[in-house]
Amino acid sequence: MSFFKGFNQELKLILSLRVGAFLCLLGWAWVHFYWEAPYAILVWNETVFSWVERGGGDWEKFVGTGSNDGLLQQVVRQLFWVFLIAAAASFAARKCSIWKLIALLMGSLFLIILFYARYLESQQQLPILIEHGGQALMPIILVLALNFGPRCPLTQHVAILAVMLTFAGHGAYALGLWPTPANYFAMTKLILGFDFEASVVFLKFAGVMDFLICVGFLFTKLRRISAGYAFCWGLLTALARPLAGMSFDLHYWGADQFIHEAMLRAPHFMVPLYLLVLWHPVSEHES
Predict the structure, then answer these.
(1) Contact partners, residue 241, CB within 8 Å, separation at least 6
(2) 188 DSSP assignment
(3) Beta-carbon neighbour count of residue 130 at 10 Å?
(4) Which of 43, 136, 145, 269 qualifies as a FRET site for 63, CA 20 to 30 Å off?
């Protein structure tokens, strides 16, 4: 295997996890800096409203009016620093660097909160919570690998869980078990040129493959094939976002709008790559 040529296998394993965590966290840092993360849904309820009113606060100043930034938007924007610091810690963290490991875990914690907010925003569609499991677990997998080793069974099992969650969530949407997102059809049409009927067939096939891959991870003889497919499909679907959205007619060619969409999906292909390297037979000159 020629992945990360020049590194021994242990370094390849750690590097794949570092790159995955770095790209994912940096991508979400850009979302918090440039866009607006959907945390508002967590506080948009009667309970929080009554707390603000009882405390003498102004609800519009707290949540914003759309024409100006409220306290909530200002706080959320500062979370950019949490993700940026966690991204930096992806390469800086070592086994004994406690604060850098904590920074990575904080990155995971805020990802979990963010994905729960997206779950509520989607009217509690379960697949949207499941499919983000790989991203939420990415920094945790790196912390486990740094502390217990990249070959530790716990590290390996959490990585397998991360991949299975990602593909199960995507598969549920692709098969139409939950309403298939419109951007699935849009990307299929823009990249492959399929019409709606052909896109439905293609997505259903992809959904079946997603679930077959999840099953394949449960069997020793199939796990390397499953990891290889997951790496290729995860990479292609991540790149599909900028490929479908970017254009020379857009400001900055649309890079500011779409590059981060591929970056934050790095765990979808870097965790399978870690497993693929992990399960690759080690020769003497690689050890």
Answers:
(1) 187, 258, 261, 262, 265
(2) H
(3) 21
(4) 136
Distances in Å between the Cα of 97 and the Cα atoms of 37, 92, 138, 155 are 30, 9, 18, 19
- Would you give the DSSP letter of residue 67? S
Q: Are 83 and 135 in contact (CB under 8 A)?
A: no
Question: In angstroms, rounded to a whole number, what is the distance separating the alpha carbons of residues 258 and 265?
Answer: 12
Given the structure tokens 């502390």, which residue do they identify?
147
Closest by CA to 273, choosing from 19, 28, 23, is 19
User: Cα–chain-centroid distance for residue 51?
Assistant: 33
Q: What are phi and psi of 160, to 5 degrees?
A: -60, -45
Contacts of 208 (CB under 8 A, 6+ apart): 171, 175
Residues in contact with 163: Cβ distance below 8 Å, sequence separation at least 6, in sequence order = 134, 213, 214, 217, 227, 230, 271, 272, 275
100-137: pLDDT as tens digits: 999 999 999 999 999 999 998 888 999 999 999 999 99
